[in-house]
Write a structure and sequence with these properties.
3 helices; mainly alpha; about 90 residues; 2 strands
Amino acid sequence: MLPLAGAAFTAMLQFTLVSEGWPLRRLPRLPAGLLAMLVAWEAALAVYHLVVEVTPPPGSRVYARSGPMAGESLGALLAGSAGGGCASSWPTRS
């Protein structure tokens, strides 16, 4: 579930920081935040279902899905992109 959480975190960062909340700026603060979280989780679920390969353990009821990358790789990619983006945009003193 960590790749799914990483995808939601990255989507929320992109939605709130990169776009500066542009689509939801007209709404009141609480509904805009809840809507942003809902949209971020929907985007994360879409990315997870389209990208991640699932290999279920024998005897489980989990359905196998094929995808271009493993969940661990997606988690590492998203954590690196979110962390790298935050670290590179952090203000420093010269």
